[in-house]
Every structure is written in C-alpha cells, then in structure tokens.
Amino acid sequence: MESAPRSVTVDLGLRTYQVVIGKGLLRQAGPAIRNLGFVGHAVIITDEVVSQLHSKPLLASLSQAGFSCSQEIVPNGESSKSFSVAEKLCEALARNRVDRSGLIVALGGGVVGDLAGFVASIYARGIPYVQIATTIMAQVDSAVGGKTAINLQAGKNLVGSFHQPSLVLADTGTLETLPEQVKNEGFAEVIKYGVIEQPDLLDTLAQPSLSDLDPLIADCVSIKARIVAKDERENSGERALLNFGHTIGHGIEAVAGYGTMLHGEAISLGMRAALWLSTQKAGLPQSDYRRIVSLLKQFGLPTVLPNHFSTEAIIEKVFIDKKFVRGEIRFVLASGLGVAFVSDKITRSDLATAVDVLRESRV
C-alpha cells in the first residue's frame, strides 16, 4: 500500500506554492493543476527519454482534467540548455497560440526543469509553469526554488531568471525507471544538505537499505524551502549555502564539456574540494572530511579528478561563475557537519590547491 503523499510549502507570499512528494502523482497531475485555477493550453516540455517513459499518463491526466495540451520534446542532456533550444520552444508556444492563460508543464530532471522554467519566464513576459520532477536531483533540489537557466560556453547557468513554479510534483515512482548512474548523482545533493544543515541525513544515507526515499526527499525539500523563503534571490547570503561544492563543481563541469559529466558527479568533486578547504580554513575535522568522501564513493560518485583536467582551465571557469560579486570569492565552507557559512577568505591560490588535491586518491 502506497503511503500518503507528503507536502512541503515554499512560503513566498503571493508566490507561495506546494511541493508534493509521493508515488503515483503523474496520474493525479491534471486535477492538481486544475485545482490551482488554470484553464488554458498546457504545453508539456520533456526530453526524448522521459517522454517515452512518462508522457502518456501525464497527457491522459491533463486531458481528463479538461486541458487542451501539446508536447514539445527536446534532446536528452545538458546541451539542450541553450539559446537555440529555448528559441525553438518559444516558437512552438507561439504556433500553439499559447497566451498568458496557458502554462508550461516541465516533465523531467534538472535540465528540462531549468530550460522549461527559463522559457516560461521569458515567453509573453512570463507565463506559469509546473515542475514534475522525475530524478532525485530534480526532486531534492533543482525543481524547487525558482532558479531557471540555460548555459553559455563560458559557464553553466549564466543566463537565467528567478521564476517560481506554481506547483512541484515529485513522483517518486518515476525513480524506479532511472539508470543507476543518474539515480546516484542525485545523492550528491542529498549529501550536501547533510553537510550544510542536517547531519541526520548522512546517517540515513549510510544505512544498507534505502527502500523508501519519500521521507528523505521531503527532508531535503524542507531545508531548501526554508532557505529559499528567507533569501529568495540570494541577497542576504543564506541561499548561497546551497552552493556548497558548486563553485569548483561548476568549473569542472564546464571544462569537461556539458553532457560529458553528470551534474551530480561534478558536484561530488566540488564537495570534496570544499571539504578539504574546510579542513584547512574552517577547522572541519579530518574524520568528517573522510566520512563524506566515503559516503560519496558509496553512491558511485567520483572523488578523484582525472589528470587531463587543467587546474588553470577550471579556475578560469570558476571566476566567470555568477556566484562571485565584484570579482570577490564567496566560498561556502563547513566548520562541522551541519555548520556551513560563506567565507571571503578563500584566495585564487587556495582554489587551485584544492583542485590539485582532487587528483590524489588518498584522502
């Protein structure tokens, strides 16, 4: 018997919305969206892989709820987060005569969610969208919080906007269809939440069996919802804590070439670098550093950087990253598990040394 769905509120005043976590939500999507008051044309944006697996029940649910709907399918992978794909999607919306009464339904993982949310934010100066997240990465992180973006060759997510979804559905039944590598990359973000705020998550992840992921996902969403509610547009600095491991991780991802390395895999390397810097600059115990690296390995995530990745190339990408203010480094460190803060004391030399440490297999 399936347990009742869990719901987490992202409290943003007039932009408040629910994140619903549970199995079978795809089949309930139509009524859930209709209950928000939407009546216009619904355009599903998804990728080639997810469409084959999950579009049919979603289309049926939307149609049964009275929506006219259509579907736009983009290539699978990070390369779809581009101006050219965003333009094609906007043209498709126009062909379908979608106006401000219509909405976009993003069906997929982080790439689809980022892309579809970005298109929703710019088409007709902004239309509503709903996130239906089908990966752990999207369910615990990228589908929540309203950050939308596409990539440039210069760096990841450099063009984007804040545009909150009207609803997020995390159907955990879809996780059963994920390849092991794609499933495991999402645990990098779960581990991040354990490091920055809730160490109990790390104990849960260390258990030999994780048969029910719903509570774990709900805990992660609750952390992100609280932080986003306090710092929606990353003005006060609290939301920056969510970037733990992402500064160097995004640099590695860009140098690797988008689609070569999964996002969570790059973040795994970035977290190891951030943890090492935390032992040097913030007093993080070596035992905590080793514990997290061991946990990353448990989920098959990389912790050693291949030698052909140039340190200087990674650092150059790091300094293009949007997380920098007036060229100053704002780097997230942890003084203990569950105790993270933004530091302005990390230098370019420190970052380069941390990248070099990633080449060492011994922790």
What's a concise summary of this model?
Helices cover 44% and strands 18% of the residues. The protein is α/β, with parallel strands linked by helices. The strands form three sheets. A seven-stranded mixed β-sheet has the order 1-2-9-6-5-3-4, sandwiched between helices. A two-stranded antiparallel ribbon has the order 7-8. Strands 10-11 form a two-stranded antiparallel sheet.
Provide the succession of SSEs.
EEHEHEHEHEHEEEHHHHHHHEEH
Enumerate how many helices there are, as a single number. 13
Tell me which CATH architecture of the largest domain applies here. Up-down Bundle
Sheet having the most strands: 7 strands, mixed
- Specify the oligomeric state: single chain
Q: Structural class, please?
A: alpha/beta
- Provide the CATH top-level class of the largest domain: Mainly Alpha
Q: End-to-end span in angstroms? A: 44 Å
Report the portion of residues in β strands. Answer: 15-25%
What's the overall geometry? globular
Unreliable segments of 5+ consecutive residues: none
Widest sheet: strand ordering? 1-2-9-6-5-3-4
